[in-house]
Each structure stands twice: as structure tokens, then as C-alpha cells.
What does this fold into?
Amino acid sequence: MSAESATGVKRLFVVAREHLSNALIGGFFIMLTGFTPEHWVGHVLEAVHLSPAFFKSITFGLDPRIALVLIGVAIVVGDLLLKRHSAAPQLESAGAAEAHTARAAAPSSDPVPERPSIAVLPFQNMSGDPEQEYFADGMVEDIITALARFPALFVIARNSCFTYKGRSVDIKQVGRELGVRYVLEGSVRRSSDRIRITGQLIDAATGAHIWADRIDGALEEIFKLQDHVTSSVVGAIAPKLEQAEIERVKRKPTKSLDAYDYYLRAMAKLYEGNRQSIEEALQLFKRATELDPGFAAAYGMSAYCYVWRKANGWVADRSRETAEATSLAHKAAQLGRDDAIALSEAGFALAFVAGELDRGAALIDRAMTLNPNLASAWRFSGYTRVFLGDSDVAIRHLEQAIRLSPLDPLIFIVYNGLALAHFFSGQYDAAAAAAEKAGPNYITGVLMLAVSLALAGRTSESEKALSRLRELDPGLSAAKFAELWPLRRPEDCARFQEGMRKLGLPA
It folds into this structure.
């Protein structure tokens, strides 16, 4: 067996042993009962990062399902033997016992990826002015974006990182909760036309400081200072990355500091997520593009404001807003050919608001290629694949969005996407399980729970979900959701309409 094959086999067994035992055992029963879901083997191989062809070569040409079941059986037998062996009385030092207790009490987390992984915590605003909070937050978001563009790094998304804002945290706990090896924290002090950034990179496993620095400069040099932080962090945790690549991914969103300031203010409003704040964000993004007509990300985020408006039923003039969103999205795509944020936001606006599914999917794919760590792009891709009728790909992409941002306050939207993907593939119980994770206060999630349960024949549970729907919206009607999702396949539209009919909602 070649060295490459040996490595592949070892990786398969290690990952399977740690993460896939249940899936493999489940696969054994799937085979016994005769079911052959097409995506089951693909998901397992994807988790181990093996191509089907290479997997076949290292398992001597066996049917992949049979090979995986044999591995699963081997793992189960090995576990039983190991447990039997470890059941014998053993002396344990006090320190080891404490460590075991700590591990048992620790919250479960995703495994740390093999490639360098990092989370950037919100920087402290040291300016003494609460109004400057948006500036410190925007700085961190840009640093996350710059780091995320390195394919060799695994970077946790902004929304999960910001769940730690304003909290005194244990870096080791952060590492466990987010499944990362490194954590970057720091502070920002803005005074008049000067700025100071401090940062420290910490090994989350040991608590050791790997890099720390204090960077001072003029406010007009803000992008240069951000690049300094990014390059220092990358240089500390990924020394093999070539300097040329570091230079390539440095992001200069605009040359206008005033436009950048309006952009950061708009982002702060966008994250508030209510009707008034979205309207204010739209006006601030517009001001940013007036100051810099080439500001691609600002156009993309402007288009995304219309996504929020449609999703929440805030559209006053549908044809006008669709035209505006389309124009902004096309502008963002034209100007931001190498800007993942501009492309992903524009792509989803085209798909969701304008119904340009193929064009939208192509832009989002380009964004994921440019920045494989952009959680929102994976989320947008998942939804767009649902609209196109490709549920298997949608599920994989939405699950990746969760991995990249496991603590995201908007994770209920991702679970709703998973509910849609399972629903349109006819997996109503799985759809209901995902919809439940979206929570009891997200109206479209509760709707998907109700229709999924209805088509699954779980009538009493469906009626309970319908009752919750009416609490959230006493004037609920089928018409309100009839054209919410731009579904391409007629059978998907018919399936959803059948669920609505079973609920008995008024037209």
C-alpha cells in the first residue's frame, strides 16, 4: 500500500472513530432494511475529506456502503474490547481525576480542524465614548474578513465571535466552545485623528501568548494598521504562507475614510435587525456609495437590506423594491468581482428578491471560492440550493454555515433553511426537527414546523404549532407565505401548498 493510501486509511479510521461511529452503525441498519439514501456515503466521505475514487482504491474496490459498515463494525468491536479492558481497577492521581472531571463537565464542541483555526473576539472600545463602539466592532469585522480569505485558515464567523461581547471570558473555554486552536483579542482607542490598536494572539489549549503588539498611527492609515494586525497574526500561526499571498488578500474596501465610517455605522444598524434600523442602514449605505461610487461591499449590503425587508413582510411597493435591489446587486457584482462580501450579498438578493436563481447561485459560488470561511455565503448558498431544488447540497452547505458560526444569533435562520431542504425532499420528520431548532418565536420556522408535522401525519403536534403561529400573527393567512420563496420546481410549490391546505389556513 502506498504512503498516500496508508494516510487515507488512517485518516478514515481516526475520523470515523472520533465522529462517525453512530453514522456508520446507522448505515449498517440502513443496509439491513434495504434503504439506500444517495447522500449517506457522500456525507461520510466528505467528513473524512476523501474522494469516492480514492476511497474505493484504499478499500480494495468494495461497495462504499459495505466498506463503511465493515469499518463501523470494527469500531464497535474495538470500543467493546477497550471498555472491557478499561473496566479493570486502576489507580488515578488526584490531578488526573480532576482533569477527567473537568473534561466531563466541559460543554461539547466541534473538533478542532487540522488546519490552523482562529476566533477573533470583539475588541474593547478604549475611546471613552460609547458612540465609537461601532468603529471598534467594524475594525474587528474587517480583521475577521481579511483572515477568512486565507484558505489555509479556519476562521469562525463574526456573529458567533460577537456573542462574547461585553463578557469576561476564559480563553480556553472559548476555544472549546468554538472548536478553535487560537483566539485573538485586543482593544481600539480612537482619539481625534489618531488610533491605537492592541492585540494579542493566544493558544486556546494552553493559554500561552503567541503574539502581542501595540500599533499606533493616523486615522487615515486605518487599513494599513488593520493589515499589520492581520499579517502579524497569519505570520504567527501559519508561517508557511507566502508573503505574496498575504499581500494578495489584504482588503481595501474603499479609499474614502468618510465612506468607510458610514459603512461601519450602517453595519451596526443592520445587525439590530428591526424595521427602522434596516431603513437607517439602507440610507447610511447609500451615503457611503455617494462618497465612493466604487464601494462594492456597500452596494452589496444595500441590496441585502431588501432581503431583510422581503423576509419580514416590510415591502411597501414590491415592483419598485425588486427593481432597486436588482440594480444594487448588479452594481455590487460588477464592481466587486474579487470581493466575497459584495458577491454573496448581491447573489442572495438576486436569488431571493429578484428570483434570478442561476445568476445568484453563480455569484455566491464565486464568493465561497474567494472566501471559504464566509459563513453567510454558505447560508445564502444553502437557501439558494433549496430554491433550485437541490436539497442534498443545500443541507451540506447549511451545516457548514453552522460549523463556521456555531453561536450565531441568526442561527435560527440556518435551521429554517435546513427545515426547507428536508421538507422539499419529502423528509417531513427531519424537517420538523430542524424547524423546532429555529425556535418558537421565528414565524417562518414555526410555519415550517406546522406544515412538516401536518404532512408527516402528526396532527395533534401540527395543531399545537398552528396555535403558536396564530399567537405570533393573529391575522395569519396562506397568501402571506404563498410567494415568500422563489421555488423553481412546480412540485415544491405544490408540496408547500398541500401543507398549507392541511393546516386549514384562510386564503
